[in-house]
Amino acid sequence: RLCVTLNTVPPVLQESMKIALQHGDRPLQALCLLNFADIHRCRNDVDKALPRYESSMCIMTEIGNRLGQTQVYLGVGKCWLQQKELDKALDALQRAQELSEALGTKLCSLKVHCLSEGIYRSKESQEELREQVVKFLQCVEELELYCGMCGESIGERNQQLQALPCSHIFHLQCLQNNGSKGCPKCRRSSMKPGFV
Which of 3, 7, 82, 153 is the most exposed place for a label (fewest CB within 10 A)? Predict the structure, then answer.
């Protein structure tokens, strides 16, 4: 969390990994490997990312961290997407989806549907594309990831958001235009809002 750029992350992660190895902290080792893999993927170095994902997956499986396994599969899917290996990407995303459904992690499901939608769009597979769009929108609805005022999905465009103390999130501009001091959704008083 203290790191700002990808270039400053490895020394911090290396120190965390060193501590994890010294203390035999397998969960921390798995997370460090996952983060190293994500960094290499973001740097478009898939050849370094995939082995780290594999190592992280081995530890995640060993310790029974199924949420971590889901994150590994998402990362692997993104690697295959970068390599234009769409079928391999879909396979990894399918595994991530199975785990996220079993765990009930809707945010992971949302990510899977979003990535799958892009793949099916590029493959011009209309039926599968339609299915992924519907599932994506269902996840958005279930997670309430839409502005309670204008009804638009949150995160589709680069807009400032504002979280109210009641935890409801709105577009900042919608709240400013509303003029009321209460939450438009639950009508609670909105003292000290926080920016997202």
Answer: 7
